[in-house]
Amino acid sequence: MGFLRSCMLRRSARTAAGFWRSQAARQPPGREISTTCPRSTVMPAWVIDKYGKNEVLRFTQNMMIPVIHYPNEVIIKVHAASVNPIDVNMRSGYGATALNMKRDPLHIKTKGEEFPLTLGRDVSGVVMECGLDVRYFKPGDEVWAAVPPWKQGTLSEFVVVNGNEVSLKPKSLTHTQAASLPYVALTAWSAINKVGGLNDKNCTGKRVLILGASGGVGTFAIQVMKAWDAHVTAVCSQDASELVRKLGADDVIDYKSGNVEEQLKSLKPFDFILDNVGGSTETWALNFLKKWSGATYVTLVTPFLLNMDRLGIADGMLQTGVTVGSKALKHFWQGVHYRWAFFMASGLYLDDIAKLVDEGKPRNYMIENGLLLFPKFCGFRFGPLLKKPFLFLKFQRPS
Ligand SMILES: NC(=O)C1=CN([C@@H]2O[C@H](COP(=O)(O)OP(=O)(O)OC[C@H]3O[C@@H](n4cnc5c(N)ncnc54)[C@H](OP(=O)(O)O)[C@@H]3O)[C@@H](O)[C@H]2O)C=CC1
Predict the structure, then answer these.
(1) CA of 284 relative to ligand 1 center, distance in Å
(2) Of the candidates 160, 136, 156, 134, which has an alpha carbon nearest to the alpha carbon of residue 147?
(3) Residues with CB under 6 A from ligand 1
(4) Beta 207-211 vs 122-130: how paired, if at all?
(5) Distance of CA 113 from the midpoint of ligand 1 (Å)
(6) Which of 189, 251, 247, 193 is nearest to 367 (CA)?
(7) This protein's superkingdom (predicted)?
(8) Using one digit for the tens of pLDDT, what is the confidence trace for 176-220?
(9) For position 329, what pLDDT does the model report?
(10) pTM of the entire structure?
């Protein structure tokens, strides 16, 4: 796919909305504008105007349609989007210091300039327009992507993404199913493959422990690990045990029915641990790794963004570096590897994931699971979105 990406020469075609887009380009991107503007320059979106609880979520019909600013960008018409824990946290202001620095490295804007902010990282939709350097996609292609958290999100009718962050949607998934996957799948991929070093060639028979196995990242990770022939032990609550078994977990441990450490002592040590829970798990989980055999513990729950929120950019980065460095060193001397992993927005990794999905390797349970997770966040953690669920699931242009 990477080869194809670089070889295929596909030029962008301007859409009929091009004229109004050029008008819209005079407006700052991601802004809400007056209702007197022609309808073709505005779009519906869920936005926040300040950080807080669910009450800050607001539905508007008047967000500026985003425009292409760089030649490698693509405009996607959103057919389906979804909500992840990061959106819930960002709604409350989590990571604002670092994300604002990334949005505005030169500090040109004043405080609060990030609003109105559109949340939502996942998108499945159709390419509307491509920048001049975009070679791999053309208008009309069905694509999926996960948008990095410092960019305007996907809970809107259109979203602009970098061409390198986009991939052709798996043919076997509908848009709604596809939109449940990119963010968690890319996070799991980053932790397992890029940081953990596991792949389809070196995983057979490896013993893998997944903490927080019933969540978005965990359920995807189980399926990838099983597709690569690993032996998977999943830690989750009792009510999710049937789900994770269906996804392929070999052993299931209920973290609510007793001490997880005690339950794990009866099992053989592990080659790889993926920690989606964090906190106190770090103090005991590494004891269950094989020693001096290259076994690795990867956690997705890191204080990276929190440190910068608390201490500012420079001190936060310093603190983060010292923390991860000292922990990695300490565990290295004890014969195991300690790593942090982060979500990576990558069309290339999504190409690999789409291939696995279309091969049915993460079996159809993934699709079932995606739909199960979707109402979970939507219903319990992002209640107001339910008031206009059709707009959340599928953004329709009001006639
Ligand atoms: N570093 C990064 O770039 C990223 C980090 N993350 C982080 O990774 C973590 C997982 O993300 P995601 O899967 O999307 O989140 P979810 O909320 O979907 O999943 C978390 C799961 O953990 C389970 N859980 C909670 N406490 C425990 C426990 N003590 N032992 C075992 N399981 C437990 C929950 O199950 P139940 O509700 O049944 O108790 C839930 O299903 C989150 O903390 C998230 O913030 C995610 C994406 C990117």
Answers:
(1) 18
(2) 160
(3) 84-86, 184, 187, 211-212, 214-218, 235-237, 240, 255, 276-277, 300-302, 342-343
(4) unpaired
(5) 30
(6) 247
(7) Eukaryota
(8) 888 888 999 999 999 999 999 999 999 999 999 999 998 889 988
(9) 94
(10) 0.88
Report the C-alpha gap between 168 and 350 in whole angstroms: 8
**168: region left, alpha or beta (phi > 0 left; psi from -120 to 50 alpha):** beta
**Residue located nearest, by CA, to atom 2 of ligand 1:** 342
Q: Using CA atoms, how far apart are residues 250 and 234, in angstroms rounded to an integer?
A: 8
CB atoms within 10 A of CB 158: 25
C-alpha span between 51 and 307 (Å, rounded): 18
Tokens of 351: 């190409």
**Alpha carbons 7 and 172: distance in angstroms, whole number:** 25
Bond before 116 cis per omega within 30 degrees: yes
Report the residue among 277, 343, 349 best suited for mutation to probe ligand 1: largest number of ligand atoms under 8 A from its CB. Answer: 277
The rounded Å distance from CA 89 to ligand 1 centre is 13
Structure token pair of residue 374: 């979707």
